[in-house]
């Protein structure tokens, strides 16, 4: 989501004549797009700001700005109290950036952090440079108010972009050679445009070009409709991958998190998804060490992971966030215990993913080639429909092409194989 927002800001700046440099020493302006979801995300930003301020000692004219959720959360503090930055701009105020920047270049400080009920930047073409994979933000904000989460406070209320303009944007991306779009929102299932819902949007986006893969993230289990499941199941170019954060396997903790579903409802939803798409890849998010989480609650989460056998799970230590309801609860699980629980979940998930990946050995997977692999130039990397990374010896195809790969080897993170029909060296 932050990559998408950075591309949006890039689009606004490009339209106002700004250029970009990869070299800090050449820059007149440095903008840091930030996340406030957990404390450690913010600590990393402070580290960066330290680095930029050292550069400012060498070049006092350098303008340093903080964008995004941390800007929204800390507001004037970053300018007044901590004196770390010249500009603070929240997620709904990016249109003001050009004006704020010209004043900042004259030495004026600027803060713009008002949230909006309507801003969705629909008319701005993001500055995309990736070439084949595109993020498309379909809605902004969140009205769910999970008790641990700062997002409703930093990104404001839910609002959706018009369906027509989203379909047009995807058509332009397809024309430019993009091969995969990921529709983004904090809770995409609350997408609305008149009578049309997210399922209608997905169907229409997928119809733009059948060689374009369509993905989406993130779904809240409460809002995942039967209609959406059907659209995913029956539309060939919608990837069969659902990211469905469960957060905990304990009803008591889910209640305290205000997640609005029970473990049993979640289970039934998974059953419905899997019966419509037996091959679906399911991934999830888990928070470990939420206030009052006892060993028995943690065991319930472990049991749920064993039962559902997710294809992947992102696990986070609970991090108290100011303004949220959980901020008032006692953060009573010791840091070390949170770490242990996260590790146990990660180990369990690792074993599950490894087993699933090994089961794919011998099968043929269609892979969208993304480019040379990080490790060896002689290999390519790409992903399957179900979002698994595959590494294979370079073929005559290139970035953006589809190739059929027979899987020969697997670890828990990567599948390895070779193009079918390609002779062994
Ligand atoms: N502490 C830890 N993890 C959090 N998440 C959101 N808020 C917090 C927090 N305060 C996690 C949730 C969410 C993911 C994007 O980040 O699991 O699904
Ligand atoms: Fe945060 Fe909950 Fe909204 Fe997700 S659904 S962004 S966890 S409040």
Overview of this protein structure:
This protein has 425 residues and is an alpha/beta fold. The protein folds into four domains: 2-112, Rossmann fold, CATH 3.40.50.12160; 130-239, Transcription Regulator spoIIAA (2-Layer Sandwich); 244-359, Transcription Regulator spoIIAA (2-Layer Sandwich); 364-419, OB fold (Dihydrolipoamide Acetyltransferase, E2P) (Beta Barrel). Helix content is 34%, strand content 22%. It starts with a helix and ends in a 6-residue tail after the last strand. The mean pLDDT is 96. The chain binds 5'-deoxyadenosine and iron/sulfur cluster. Iron/sulfur cluster is lined by residues 142, 144-146, 149, 151-152, 186-187, 220.
